[in-house]
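Standup notes, protein team

Yesterday: finished cleaning the Flemingia macrophylla set.
Today: Peroxisomal membrane protein 11B structure.
Blockers: none.

Input for Peroxisomal membrane protein 11B:
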Amino acid sequence: MNKDTVDKLVIFLAKRDGIDKLVKTFQYVSKLVNWHVEPTHPAAAKRFKQWEVASGLSRKAFRTGRFLTGFNLLRRSPGSTASLRLLAVLSNAGEMVYFFFDHFLWLARIGTIDAALAQRLSFVSAFGEAVGYVFFVIADFILLREGLRAERKMRRSEEKSEEDEKRIRTIRGERVMRLMAVAANVADLFIAVAEIEPNPFCNHTVTLGISGLVSAWAGWYRNWPS
């Protein structure tokens, strides 16, 4: 591992989101391994299950206060149009509900408050999460479409300046990041639906495991220092 990669890894792990994506990877890898080895190696499966649960609880603790991030995002980047501003409000409101009730879900899971509340808190948290992700995805598709239109317009121009070429490269970079965001949000939406309306597909270990890893690795890519 060269010095540049090590430096980037240090910067990545210094971020709250960087640590979260790393621990999320542990959580869902251990979930898949537990499912795979449970029939043949129950003792090892139990250890991986404990790792999964510990990773999930530690992520909840580490996200304390995260619901306030939505207010800051709305203040800094409310959206360039009325429709994007509305989508920003709805998506961030859903995410704030998710993170806020996730605090109480964590307390219920560790036994600090009545554990019987866990199912109800999980539903409210996951519902807010799902609503937020739906509007985040809609907003990202709108912005992707706008970026494509802007790029086509510049490419059709007979006299492209150096500034236009630079802008095209910027649009392409933003497109990749938005596609990563869509992948992460859709994957997390599957996980949220599994909590809201349990069903054989979304609640299958493989679906949850792959969704968790897609979300973690897409977030890893977005947060990795350029």
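Follow-up from PR in the comments: The CA atoms of residues 33 and 71 lie 38 Å apart.
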